[in-house]
């Protein structure tokens, strides 16, 4: 599986046996054609496994064969599960390998996420992480790469939610007569939850209570949660450090500098922030980290061959 009869690795899935594609607004996984027919069980779904056990001391250990679900069944389950995680289609191709680090903090962010994913202790205590940084710096990319690995390679249950969509879903649920708990329940219980855009929203009482309940429930149960945010993780405003040598700055400048660093702590409140400190390692990407969406756009508009110029004649 994942390899051709010749022993060559499949060029389409790189030997992973599954592919992740964009489908509507979601990232969607499916079994690669190279593995559609399982070579181990020939499509039966079960395979024999040899076991050894001692039933009687006189006879000694005996070997016998049992029918167990084939690996292709486990894979099918993981793929089905992946399709309920809720990853956005823009993150379909996100991986640790195609994440580029432009600075030391991005390097730390990638290594931290990779270490977390590769060393996740099933059923154990796993400290999550929060990625904070400017737009387009790959925060959602790393959350997606992490969840992909956990779900498809480790076999965990995970969910991804964008915070404003979560609030909207709960509000809609309320209108349909559901309680907040009914909607938050599954998110409280899932093994790994990634909350994107933390701190976003209007900060209404409803939003704060929803978030508080979700975080408190996960915290109390010792569950692992990952976050991404555009807000700073600093506990205090760095008005002293961001200020130029005294005498060069007006008080107006100082006020502007303080205003442009918005703190997550102030956005989510002390109760939540305090729990986050215990639940997660913090990685903050500096303000000058390049926005990949803009970098791509700039590459696209650079002078080059006209659109379609690469095509052959008569098309
Ligand atoms: N460091 C990076 N290496 C490779 N690709 C990147 C990197 N940063 C961003 N990208 C790509 O750029 C696009 C935007 O990235 P992403 O959505 O992860 O940014 P973000 O940090 O979550 O931004 P926002 O704060 O706006 O949500 C994605 O297609 C992503 O794969
Ligand atoms: Mg994002
Ligand atoms: Zn393949
Ligand atoms: Zn099989």
Automatic annotation (TrEMBL):
MF terms in GO = ATP binding; helicase activity
Domain of life according to the entry: Bacteria
List, in alphabetical order, the GO biological process terms annotated in this UniProt record.
DNA replication
Task: Mark out the compositionally biased spans (Basic and acidic residues).
Answer: 288-301
Disordered, as annotated region: 288-315
Residue runs in coiled coils: none
Gene3D superfamilies recorded for this chain? Answer: P-loop containing nucleotide triphosphate hydrolases
What are the residue boundaries of the AAA+ ATPase domain, all occurrences included? 125-278
Q: Which UniProt keywords apply?
A: ATP-binding, Helicase, Hydrolase, Nucleotide-binding
Q: Which SUPFAM superfamilies would you find in this protein's record?
A: P-loop containing nucleoside triphosphate hydrolases
In Pfam terms, one family for this protein is IstB_IS21
Keyword Hydrolase attributed: yes
Supply the CDD domains for this chain: AAA (cd00009)
- PANTHER family named in the record: ATP-BINDING PROTEIN RV3427C IN INSERTION SEQUENCE-RELATED, CHROMOSOMAL REPLICATION INITIATOR PROTEIN DNAA
Q: What is this protein called?
A: DNA replication protein DnaC
Q: Which organism is it from?
A: Archangium gephyra
């Amino acid at each position: 599986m994942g390899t051709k009869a010749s022993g060559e690795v499949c060029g389409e899935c790189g030997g992973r046996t599954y592919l992740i594609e964009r489908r509507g607004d979601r990232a969607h996984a499916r079994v690669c054609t190279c593995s559609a027919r399982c070579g181990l069980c020939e499509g039966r779904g079960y395979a024999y496994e040899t076991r050894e056990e001692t039933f009687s001391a006189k006879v000694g250990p005996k070997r016998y064969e049992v029918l167990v679900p084939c690996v292709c069944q486990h894979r099918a389950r993981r793929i089905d599960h992946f399709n309920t995680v809720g990853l956005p289609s823009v993150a379909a191709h996100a991986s640790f390998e195609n994440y580029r680090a432009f600075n030391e903090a991005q390097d730390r962010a990638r290594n931290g996420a990779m270490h977390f994913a590769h060393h996740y202790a099933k059923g154990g205590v796993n400290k999550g992480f929060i990625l904070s940084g400017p737009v387009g710096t790959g925060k959602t990319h790393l959350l997606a790469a992490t969840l992909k690995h956990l779900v498809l390679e480790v076999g965990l249950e995970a969910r991804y939610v964008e915070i404003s969509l979560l609030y909207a879903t709960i509000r809609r649920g309320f209108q349909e007569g559901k309680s907040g708990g009914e909607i938050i329940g599954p998110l409280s219980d899932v093994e790994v939850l990634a909350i994107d855009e933390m701190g976003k929203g209007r900060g209404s009482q409803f939003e704060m209570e929803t978030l508080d309940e979700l975080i408190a429930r996960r915290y109390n149960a010792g569950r692992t949660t990952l976050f991404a945010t555009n807000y700073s993780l600093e506990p205090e405003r760095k008005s002293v450090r961001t200020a130029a040598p005294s005498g060069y700055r007006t008080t107006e400048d100082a006020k502007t500098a303080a205003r442009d660093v918005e703190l997550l702590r102030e956005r989510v409140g002390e109760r939540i922030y305090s729990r986050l400190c215990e639940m997660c390692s913090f990685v903050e990407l500096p303000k000058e980290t390049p926005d990949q969406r803009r970098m791509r756009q700039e590459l696209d508009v650079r002078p080059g061959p006209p659109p379609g110029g690469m095509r052959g004649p008569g098309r």
